[in-house]
Amino acid sequence: MLALTIWPEPVLGRPWLQRGVSAHQAHSYETEQCHMSLRQILREATGFLGSKLSTLLYHGRSVLCPSCCERIYPGACAIVSLAELQSQSLATLVPLRESPRGLRRFFSILFPTSLMSEQFTRKQAVRICPHCQYPLPYNIERTRQVTIAIIGDVSSGKSVYIAVLLRLLEQGAFLPRDLPAKLPCLTPEARERYERDYGKPLFIDRMVPRGTPRAIDTTHQPIIYEIGLRLEPDLPPVRFNLVIYDTSGEDYVIQARQVQYAPYVLNADAIIFMLDPVAIPQMRASLPNDPHFRYGHNLALGHPLDSFSKIVQPLVQARARRPRPLAITLSKADLLKKLRPVGQQYGFLKRAPDYSGGLDLNDLASVDQEVRQLLYEYDLGRFLATVEFYQGQLFAPVCYTAVSALGYTPDEQGSIPTVSPWRCLDPFLWVLHELGLLPARARSASGLGPALHGSATVQTPAFPLTPAYPVTPATPWQGAQPGQRLNWP
Ligand SMILES: Nc1nc2c(ncn2[C@@H]2O[C@H](COP(=O)(O)OP(=O)(O)O)[C@@H](O)[C@H]2O)c(=O)[nH]1
Ligand SMILES: [Mg+2]
Hints:
It comes from Thermogemmatispora tikiterensis. The chain is an alpha/beta fold. It folds into 3 domains: 3-56, no CATH class; 63-127, no CATH class; 144-449, Rossmann fold. The chain has 17 helices and 15 strands. Helix 7 (158-170) packs across helix 8. The chain is globular and about 80 Å long. The model is unreliable at 1-21 and 445-489 (pLDDT under 50). The protein binds guanosine-5'-diphosphate and magnesium ion. Magnesium ion binds next to helix 7.
C-alpha cells in the first residue's frame, strides 16, 4: 500500500526525550506514530475542509436550544407531532420528518422547512432539539431569539419581579399607546407552571411566594413570547422571541452551578442584575427594624460586590465576544422610602414614568444618576468601580435603575395589601431599546406619572436633574447619561 511518513515538529513534544531512549528507538517510535496511509490523509483533509466549509456556509444558521443551551441547526432537527411527543416515549415516536442526512442535511440547514403550513399545523408539528428533545418554538429558524437574563443573589427579588413583569408584558403595558403589536406566549405550559408557583400566590393570595429551589436538571423550561411590533405601517414588523428564565440565586453565584444550571447567562443578549438593598450593609443598618427582614431573608446575604463578581466570572472566562447591555436594578425600592424623612425623599421615588408614549430616556437618565449617587452614598463605590471596569468589554451600555415589584413591604407573614408595581418596566424597556427592538420617545417631553405608593407626589423636571438633596462629594457620574463611560479620578 502506498504510504507516506509525516514528521512532526522537530524537537518540542518528543516524549521519548524525557524517557531517555536511544536515538534509534526514537526514530522507530516516531515513524510508527506518524505513519499514515494516503487514504487516511485524504480522509482527514476532506473532513477538515468539510468542517471549515460548513462553518462558512452555515454561518448564521445555528441557534441555541432554549432548554439545554446547545448550539443546533433548526433545519437539521427532526419534526414530530407535539401531541405524540407528549403522549409517547421517544423510542416509539415516529417523526413526521426524520432528521435529514447526507446531502439532504446540507440543503435542509441552508433552507429549513417552514412549519407554517396547514398540513403541519393540523399535526401540531414541532422541531425537537437533537440533544434534549425539547420542542423548539415553531418559528425558531427565522426569528431572532432574545434572551434577557434576570440574575442576582438569593432573595434579591428576581422571581417576584419576573412574575410582575410577565403580567405587565401580557397586558401590553410596555407598548406605546396604539402601537399595533402581537405577543402570544409560545410556552403555555411553562407559563402556567410559573403562574401557579408565583403568579397565584402574589396576585390572588396576596402573599410573597416561596423561594426558588436550586436547579437539579441541566435543561430549563424558559418562558418564551413571540413579539411582533409594527413600528411603521409600510414596513415589515419587528419580530423576536423573548426568552426569560428564572433560576435560584445559588445557581448564579456559585460558578460551577452557573455553568451547569444557568449556561444561558453566557449567551444572554442583555442582563438585568438585581441588586438587593437589604444586602447592602450600610443600607440595611439604616433601615428601621422592619418585620420584612425577619421574613423571607436568611441573614447570610452576600455583599452585592461579591455576588456581582461571582456572577460575572464565567462571562470573563468564556471571553464573551460582544458586550451586552447591563441594567443594574435596585430591587425592593419601596424600602428606600424608609431611608429618609418624607420631605427629603430621593427624586426618583417621587415620580413614576408614563410608558404610554414610549420609553422616556430623559427620565431614565435622571434615575440612573440618582441610583448611582445613592449607591455611592451607601458605600458601594467599589461596586460602581467594578461595573465600570467591565464596561466596554463585557457590558455596554450600563444603566442603573430601581424597581419595586410589590410596591409594598410585606408583613411578617409575608402578606401584602395588593401588588402595586413601580418602575418595573424601566430596565426591561431600556434593554429592549438598547438591543434596537423598541424605539424610545423623543427626548424632549417627559410624562411624569404617579409616585411610588405612599410618597408625596412632587412634579420635578425629569432632566437635567436638580437633586432634591445636597450632592456629597463630586462624583464621576454627575451628568452621565445611561450607558456613558465614566471618567474615574
Ligand atoms: N419590600 C419588598 N420586598 C420584596 C419585593 N420583591 C421581593 N421582595 C422580598 O424578597 C423576597 C425574595 O424575593 P424572591 O423574588 O423570591 O427572590 P429571588 O430569590 O431573587 O427569586 C420575597 O420573599 C419578599 O419578601 C419588593 O418589591 N419589595
Ligand atoms: Mg427566585
